[in-house]
Amino acid sequence: LATVTKVEELKLIINMIPIWVFTLPFGICASQTSTFFIKQGAIMNRNIGNNGFVVPPASIFTLAAVGMILSVTIYDKLLVPVLRKLTGNDRGISILQRIGIGMVFSVITMIVAALVEKKRLEAVEMNGPLKGSLSMSALWLAPQFLIIGFGDGFALVGLQEYFYDQVPDSMRSLGIALYLSVIGAASFL
Known about the structure:
The protein has 189 residues and is an all-alpha fold. Helix content is 74%, strand content 2%. β1 (47-48) and β2 (53-54) form a beta hairpin. The two termini are 38 Å apart. The model has no long low-confidence stretch (mean pLDDT 86).
């Protein structure tokens, strides 16, 4: 027979499975930043000035980190105090609401990325494959990187809080493993 504690722990884990499954689409969007977005940047014009300096494509990912830093700062310093007064919740909004906001940002990112890719493909069609992509500046990618960074500031931080807080102290490592596995499984998908 199982103890009451083990049964309660199992119930907590079972309750986390739907959140894990439904956050996979966010992870798929987030994985695009290190794959498709970087590939886009690699075939676009990354020159700065006329001195021959070319920005490495992977360094464009820095914009996502900037977006995340900005969103976490804005959320913690501006939104939480206001939302705390409005909702009475110490966190401002619930963890699941925070994750949901991050998922909305990921949808917006994919829309922006699709529009940029459409414009890039039109440039390729007009100017040919060699000149087309190079005629567009890699700065066109900045909005999608910044927006996914904002989404990460909400969803990734929210997922980490959720999976850490929903398990008992004895299972914290399992909670963090579930959080990390969302990103890993989404990258695989």
